[in-house]
Design a protein that fits this description.
This protein is α+β, with helices and mostly antiparallel strands. 27% of the residues lie in helices and 23% in strands. A 5-stranded mixed β-sheet has the order 13-12-14-1-15, sandwiched between helices. A 5-stranded antiparallel β-sheet has the order 2-3-4-9-6. Strands 5-8-7 form a 3-stranded antiparallel β-sheet, with no helix packed on it. β10 and β11 form a beta hairpin. It is extended and about 80 Å long.
């Protein structure tokens, strides 16, 4: 289940973005024929960066030319500044015309450049307007910074929080990180922190709601953190290679139990309650019912069978961890995943 970031009676981030990007993409467009009639084609995209409230702060057209063997590229556009994104070639610019004379001996297959301009933003078919509330009261986006965020003290959690803050135009310096260990619930309910990350949306959220707390939460995957598998079965390589039948039997038993829960949710819940460790970890029927309602729709979907995993999810996480300094080297993690029941 995905980890939500949640707040008790307070909200850290209510609106999804403090710095919004508007993007318009146009298809491949032929440029004017050059020389012997060979035509260069290009794609272009317009990027508009706004402030907290949707006002334009920076706008650019980025064009990618497929040179098709052509060394002279002529582009027609009114730009405030032109930036070569491919090599060191300086363009000549006159009267709305930009010309790049490329090195024929080292001609790139695709040539990229950026043209700074605010004009397309004024012609966008929508108007951007962003507002913020804290505890339901209108507030400034800047006031959302400076909050205390509780986490379990891991480098991964720190990177996830920083990534979410960056996604909304803030930085790790704008909030205070508080290592609360695994006392996430206590830290939230006692006001030790304003928000915590690392919680289970199917457990902590319904439990706090049952205790009378007004909970707001969102998913890190909506704010720049890659999707990940929260609970997985681990097996040694030797066991998987040499005794897969034993593991397959275990997985089939798990799938059989899942199918029973889907078909008989109330009976399955009662079995859980009848066999709970009431002395050390008492369960609430209300909480477990809500938990089951949250989990059932996402434990198996049309695109993913129960207990199956997509190796690309692991690879995306590994790439993200490398980009954020958690891994020192890039890693191919495809060997970590084996879907035995699908073979």
């Amino acid at each position: 289940m995905r980890n939500p970031v949640k707040t008790a009676k307070r909200q850290l981030l209510r609106v999804g973005s403090c710095a919004l990007s508007a993007l318009m993409v146009l298809g491949s467009i032929p440029a004017a024929a050059i020389g012997d009639g060979v035509t260069a084609t290009y794609d272009e995209a317009y990027y508009a960066m706004t402030d907290y409230y949707g006002n334009l702060t920076d706008g650019s057209v980025v064009k990618s030319y497929r040179t098709n063997g052509i060394s002279t590229l002529t582009d027609y556009g009114d730009y405030d500044e032109v930036i070569n994104l491919t090599d060191g070639t300086e363009p000549t610019r006159t009267d709305g015309k930009t010309v790049f004379q490329l090195d024929e001996s080292n001609l790139p297959g695709t040539f990229y450049f950026e043209g700074k301009t605010a004009k397309p933003f004024e012609q966008l078919p929508w108007t951007l307007s962003v507002s913020y509330t804290l505890n339901g009261v209108p507030t400034k986006a800047e006031d959302l910074a400076g909050k205390k965020i509780g986490y379990s003290g891991t480098a991964l959690s720190e990177a996830q929080i920083a990534s979410m803050l960056k996604n909304v135009g803030l930085s790790a310096d704008d909030c205070q990180f508080v290592d609360v260990g695994f006392d996430l619930l206590t830290a939230t309910t006692t006001g030790q922190v304003d928000a915590t990350t690392g919680n289970m949306v199917n457990h902590e959220v319904p439990q706090l709601e049952e205790e009378g707390f007004d909970i707001n939460y969102f998913y890190p995957t909506d704010y720049g953190v890659p999707q990940s598998y929260e609970l997985v079965f681990l097996a040694g390589k030797d066991a998987v290679d040499n005794n897969p039948e034993k593991i397959e039997k275990f997985l089939r038993a798990c799938r059989k139990g899942f199918d029973f829960m889907k078909e008989n949710p109330e009976e399955a819940l009662q079995i859980l309650l009848d066999h709970q460790n009431e002395e050390n970890f008492p369960l609430s029927k209300t909480v477990e019912t809500k938990s089951m309602e949250i989990l059932l729709p996402v434990m198996e979907t049309e695109d993913a069978k129960f207990l199956s995993q997509d190796v690309s999810v692991w690879q995306n996480n590994a790439d993200w961890m490398y980009e954020n300094g958690i891994l020192k080297e890039k890693a191919d993690v495809s060997f970590l995943v084996k879907n035995l029941l699908d073979e």
